[in-house]
Design brief:
Blueprint: E1 15-20, H1 27-36, E2 42-47, H2 52-59, E3 64-66, E4 78-81, H3 92-98, E5 102-104, E6 121-123, H4 127-134, H5 140-150, E7 153-156, E8 161-164, E9 169-172, H6 184-196, H7 201-223, H8 229-244
Parallel strand pairs: 1-2, 1-4, 2-3, 4-5, 5-6, 6-7
Antiparallel strand pairs: 7-8, 8-9
Length: 247
């Protein structure tokens, strides 16, 4: 895993664009931003819709930079596309063309065609999204098959996560039933996207999935099953530090 150099400068340790949120779904964007902001130098946010409630909510997060032009793609190391976009209209083709790395999540599966996938994609579907997108069950075998066919990395979420680059399938176990809460997928997407700014897509998926489950286990120890997606965000830094054995 990438560790910032002691003499590094602002912007050298990750720049992420998050394209998310809509009039209906504010929380998805907020959770993704909060999950990402500790792990990159700069977080840019492009709202799915120009909704005053969404924009004002995001502006209350001091670390985020709100943008209204995809020209920012040129300076970003990765882009998270999809959480909470709802029925918003987004120029998905421009994102695909200009992004260096794309993490596809949530409503993004209804705005990007699977034929647009390539090696620059890491996709994070749950079972329903996998079936919708690929017209197949999200089995271990199918995850590997689709990753190989489309040349991307897949992190298929579930009680046991399946991660594949088309060459091998990894099973990520752990966590608990508290992770079924709404918004945990947005937290995972934001966290994995932040990691992807400075690490390979495969490593980001593997580490992100494992650390999220570790965060769920930490939250469980304190509150049993009664924790929220927002609570997970607070456990991600110590989870990553523990997992990577950073001194």
């Amino acid at each position: 895993m990438f560790i910032p150099a002691k003499n590094s400068h602002k912007g050298e340790n990750g720049k992420l664009l998050i394209v998310a949120g809509s009039k209906q779904y504010h929380g998805s964007a907020l959770l993704a931003i909060n999950a990402a902001k500790r792990f990159v130098d700069l977080v840019y946010f492009y709202p799915g819709e120009n909704d005053c409630y969404l924009i004002n909510a995001v502006k209350n997060i001091p670390e985020v930079i709100v943008v209204y032009d995809f020209a920012v793609l040129e300076k970003c190391d990765a882009v998270l596309f999809g959480p909470g976009l709802g029925n918003s209209r987004i120029d998905a083709k421009r994102v695909v063309k200009n992004a260096k790395k794309i993490i596809l999540d949530g409503d993004g599966f209804r705005k990007i065609n699977k034929e647009m996938l390539s090696e620059k994609f890491l996709i994070t579907p749950h079972e329903g999204e996998f079936e919708y997108f690929f017209q197949k069950k999200g089995t271990k075998e199918n995850v590997k098959e689709m990753a190989k066919k489309y040349g991307c990395v897949i992190l298929k979420k579930g009680p046991v996560d399946f991660v594949s680059d088309g060459k091998k399938v990894y099973e990520i176990k752990g966590g608990n039933a508290g992770l079924t809460k709404g918004g945990t997928g947005d937290v995972l997407a934001g966290f994995v996207s932040a990691l992807a700014t400075k690490n390979s897509l495969l490593e980001s998926a593997l580490v992100g999935a494992k650390v999220l489950k570790m965060a769920g286990e930490m939250a469980f120890k304190k509150n049993w099953y009664w924790y929220s997606a927002g609570d997970l965000v607070e456990y991600l830094p110590v989870g990553l530090k523990t997992f990577t054995n950073i001194k």
